[in-house]
Amino acid sequence: MKETKYNVVIIGAGVSGCSVARELSRWDLKIGVVEREEDVCSGTSKANSAIVHAGFDAEPGSLKARFNVEGNRMMEKLSQDLDVEFKRNGSLVLSFHADAHSALENLYNKGQKNGVPGLKIISGDEVRKIEPNLTDEVVEALYAPTGGIICPFGLTIAMAENACDNGVEFLFNRKVQKIRRAETGYILETQNGMILADVVVNAAGIYADELHNMVSEKKLHITPRKGDYCLLDKEAGTHVSHTIFQLPTRMGKGILVTPTIHGNLLLGPTARDIEDKEATATTADELSEIMEKSCLGVKKIPFRQVITSFSGLRAHEEGDDFIIGEAEDAPGFYDVAGIESPGLTSAPAIGAWLAGEIAKKTGAVPKEKWNGKRKGFVRLAELNYEERALLIKKRPDYGVIVCRCEGISEGEIRDAINRTPGAVSLDGIKRRVRQGMGRCQAGFCTPRTMEILAEERGIQMEDICKNGPGSQMLEGRNKGGR
To answer: Is the peptide bond before 248 cis (omega within 30 degrees of 0)?
Structure first.
């Protein structure tokens, strides 16, 4: 059976795994990222609130608090280096009862202990001046100016591309079925052969407990916490300008209403603990709950502008904190487990810290040349007339619009396929350039996108998948000319 050898293997190509990969690429190491799906950002990282949290909610002294605040501070420069859209729109936590003032004050005090700058509690009248669509029931709010919004798959893909540019290898459709210790390091058994690694980073999301428990007697237990969302059209995107939270409960930060970095309006998530780690179907009851609860704080939400719904699974560890670092009884096996909210915000800081720890462990030396910058995709819709004319003269395929809702050209789709690691599925294209994310939800542009994908990948239309193997969009050709 085929064997591949690496100094470091990262299991999981979500935002945490890709952040670790990018940061480790600074060092002279052979690094591989093993992902069970066909692309990066195929799990929790693609289905979340797209929020950069300020850091006032996490318990002081916890890993969540530490990495949240550090990650928030890093996000501005990181987004500039990787050419990713990011905005500090600020967040508001709403209170609806005067007797809840102590709970709001508790959040404020937590934030102060965690080092969150600029926090203040403002009255209902003050908050309605900056957010006119808040309900009259809001009596006060906690304002956090450092809260922000970002594209979660844009950030993950950018970190993966930058890691690739610096020598990291990505192995897709490679499910790790078993891990066992070797004389030095670990042997990872996959359906496509064995992988040898001196060091393993377990960033497998909701499956991180299963992998950890293969090598450690100190067991982890992760519960999938399901959250449903509603996404509204860009016509509703200015209904609020801040991220609007309600006072959190033990199940999380509750239903939020927020603009997205791309101009939509997002509502959600619900929070329900489930057993099935693949159960991502939305339900009518959960979507009704989103609509009902979002109206407590925000009035006149135009629900007729909902263009899609989706759900994601958060990796909730029973200790209610991140599990990050070397397993006590498994030398060289590093966990990045229990990464639920604020995982997206924390990921850059987690990657930087863990890469430093692994570099010390392995005695790695920094590379003489490391490029921490990455140029993002050309967005035709964002160019002025002169810029478009010059681009189309050089690349005529940029003058052919495929996705009318988002204004995405054929050239952008081809670039999404041909970059490294490039898209091999329709979802991969969508996450890179937003083809199919508009009002018609790919109803118009799918056939032509499939043709382009077939051309660029040299495959048959019947082989094109929505995401991973088994999700083919078409059945085989009719036989006998029928």
So the answer is: no
Q: What percent of the chain has pLDDT over 90?
A: 95
- Pairing mode of beta strands 120-123, 140-144: antiparallel
Q: Please count the residues of the chain.
A: 482
DSSP 8-state code for residue 59: P
Q: How many CB atoms lie within 10 A of CB 360?
A: 9
Question: Under a CB-based contact definition with an 8 Å cutoff, are residues 446 and 430 in contact?
Answer: no
Rounded Cα distance between 230 and 148, Å, is 19
Show the tokens assigned to 340.
């639920």
Residue 481 has pLDDT above 50, yes or no: no
Q: What is the 3-state secondary structure (H, E, C) of 99-140?
A: HHHHHHHHHHHHHHHHCCCCCEEEEHHHHHHHCCCECCCCCE
**How far is the C-alpha of 227 from the C-alpha of 282, rounded, in Å?**
9
Model pLDDT for residues 197-222, shown as the tens digit of each residue: 999 999 999 999 999 999 999 999 99
Structure letter (DSSP) for residue 415: H
Q: Which of 405, 396, 397, 452 is nearest to 424 (CA)?
A: 452
Active-site option among 53, 239, 242, 316: 53
Catalytic residue status for 53: yes
Check: CB of residue 329 under 8 Å from CB of residue 217: yes
d(CA 287, CA 285): 6
The CA–CA distances, whole Å, from 100 to 93, 225, 246 equal 12, 26, 11
- Residues 308, 286: contact at Cβ < 8 Å? no
User: Is the CB of residue 262 less than 8 Å from the CB of residue 434?
Assistant: yes
- Phi, psi torsion values for 85, nearest 5 degrees: -70, 135
Q: What is the per-residue DSSP string for 15-37? A: HHHHHHHHHHTTBS--EEEE-SS
Distance CA 269, CA 226 (A): 8
Please state the φ and ψ torsions of residue 7, each to the nearest 5 degrees: -70, -45
Backbone torsion region of residue 12, taken as left when φ is above 0, otherwise alpha when ψ lies between -120 and 50, otherwise beta: left
Supply the pLDDT for residue 199.
Answer: 98
Q: Are 344 and 50 in contact (CB under 8 A)?
A: yes
Q: Model confidence over 104-113: pLDDT tens digits?
A: 999 999 999 9
What angle in degrees, to the nearest 10, is found between the helix axes of 446-457 and 410-418? Answer: 40
Element (DSSP H or E) covering residue 333: strand 333-337
